[in-house]
Amino acid sequence: MKDFESVIGRQPDAFCDTIVTERPQWVTGSLSHSDTRFLFKTALKDDASVAVEIGTASGFSTAVLCHALNFASQAGAISADFQVISYDISPTFYADRSKRVGDAAREQLLPELMKHVTFRHPAFALNLRQHHGNDAIKFLFIDANHKHPWPALDLLAALDCLSPGAVVVLHDINLPIEHPEIQIWGAKYLFDDLKVEKEVPQACEVPNIGSIKIPEDKEQFRAQLLQILFAHEWETDVREDYLARMDITKGSQ
Asked: Is residue 223 part of a domain?
């Protein structure tokens, strides 16, 4: 990683620990210290001027991404007109309906940084195609519905918009291991089964976040995703019309 310490004013990990400590008390089900460090540093070093997020929820991760891109911009690694674009199925935070989706970012980011953030809701991953061209996205964070097949479906829906070499960060890749009371396997199935370049936090015995790199052969990658989609029992129903829009039929399961 480039030396961003002089721009940040401290070690990146120390900055991350501070924003975790200072996040609003109402935020739940969010990134751990280790998760935050990994997401922040991955976005910081990626040289992508646009970070896209599927699954806004409280908006804490949105704030983490915005801080990372802001420091990358100050270091001259990306342009000053960087953007964080976050999609969510709901206009309100799932754990507290009195909060708007993304309110943690609104509370933690200064107004000048919030100008770089766009929230789009209600929206699914398929809606990315309405706003981003083919091969346009270089950085994507997926942290939405973790029940299989949704993580695989979200990545499939975004694939046309992802450039070869794009970095995709996936959260909760070991959710049922780290939290045995939550037996939801979608993100783990996806991360474990993909045969691509991967990275996880090195300091974690059981990392719950990781990144993959989109290969040059996106059609072969698409075939991997379709195989993963039907290799495991679905943990939730998916509307037939949504599958039809993706040219997927449950009969092929």
From this structure: yes
Q: Could you give the number of structural domains in the chain?
A: 1
1 lies in a domain?
no
Digit-by-digit pLDDT tens for the chain (253 residues) are 467 999 999 999 999 999 999 999 999 988 999 999 999 999 999 999 999 999 999 999 999 999 999 999 999 999 999 999 999 999 999 999 999 999 999 999 999 999 999 999 999 999 999 999 999 999 999 999 999 999 999 999 999 999 999 999 999 999 999 999 999 999 999 999 999 999 999 988 899 999 999 999 999 999 999 999 999 999 999 999 999 999 998 755 4
Residue 169 sits at the vertex; the CA angle it makes with 6 and 121, to the nearest 5 degrees, is: 105
Domain that holds residue 238: 12-252
- Gyration radius of the chain over CA positions: 17
pTM above 0.90, yes or no: yes
Range list of H helices, 31-147: 33-45, 60-74, 103-108, 111-114, 128-131
